[in-house]
Amino acid sequence: MTLNPQTPIPDFDPDTLETDVEDLYIAGSVACGCETWNIFIENGHVHALPIIADIIRKHHNPLIAGM
Fold first, then answer.
1. 3 touches 33 (CB < 8 A)
2. CB contact at 8 A, 37 and 44
3. What is the distance between the alpha carbons of residues 56 and 47, in angstroms, rounded to a whole number?
4. Rounded to an integer, what is the distance from CA 20 to the centroid of its chain?
5. Beta bridge pairs of residue 19
6. Could you give the residue ranges of the DSSP H alpha helices within the chain?
């Protein structure tokens, strides 16, 4: 995973929160590197939805969807 050398914030897609390592996502204060005052439990919980949506989009198997 690539980190910004100054912050060290990981490189990630802002829409899905997936890093440059396939299927590795960031959430919460990891998304702000050493600037941990930017993300708290109150605003970090929103990271779950785009991560879950991307995992479903990428790995959804219609053959087992009814299980």
1. yes
2. no
3. 15
4. 11
5. 12
6. 41-44, 48-59
| pLDDT tens sequence across 29-64 | 888 777 777 776 666 778 899 999 999 988 876 655
Alpha carbons within 13 angstroms on the beta-carbon side of residue 50 total 17
- Separation of CA 59 from chain center: 16
Instruction: Please give the distance of CA 23 from its chain centroid, rounded to a whole number.
Output: 9
Using CB atoms within 10 Å of the CB of residue 62, give its burial: 0 to 12 exposed, 13 to 18 middle, 19+ buried.
exposed
- Reduced to 3 states (helix: H, G, I; strand: E, B; else coil), residue 35 is coil
pTM value is 0.75
